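User: quick one, fold this
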Amino acid sequence: MKNLPIILNVILFLLVGHLYYLNSKNSTGAETKAIAPPPSSTGGVRIAYVNGDTLDAKYEWLKQQKDAIEQRMISAQKSLANKEEALMKDAATLQEKFQGGNMTQADAEKADMALRQRAQKLEEEKDRLSKSLGEDQKKAFNDLYANVETNLKTLSSQIGYDYILSYSRGGQILLANDSLDITKEVLELLNAKTPKK
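Assistant:
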């Protein structure tokens, strides 16, 4: 998730080309808060930005996705650590038995082969889990793209900008005028669409 600000730059830049401002009502019939651009004396393109770092930290849907992946990662690491510990313990026990003369050379070789096979299977499991977690992260990025796109299209009647960029400190945009920052408003709209757990 380290590349989130860059991904948000791409997502938000591509998503909101030529959205029109309309005054709309939410499902309860109450006026919804519109994110209207400031009046332009030149009548040019209306541009705003969303702070990608803030979106990463405060977008509830994204936090839920990251928490789910993190929990899965913690669970996988714990499971692998327990299996590694059991394997090491069994290897130490085998060595003690062999050095204590409680095991024949043939039995020791057979037990050693079984331990090596377990170690190989454990390595394969680590690789599978690593690949699976990588796929989960890729899916989370794809879901983020789809989720933000869907929500911003749904909210298009409330957003009156031609382009909404993603800004993050140290990103491709070096300076952004605070008057163009609509992060708070976009977060409110996106979080309002996020189902509560």
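User: anything notable?
Assistant: Helices lie at 4-15, 52-58, 60-99, 105-154, 183-192.
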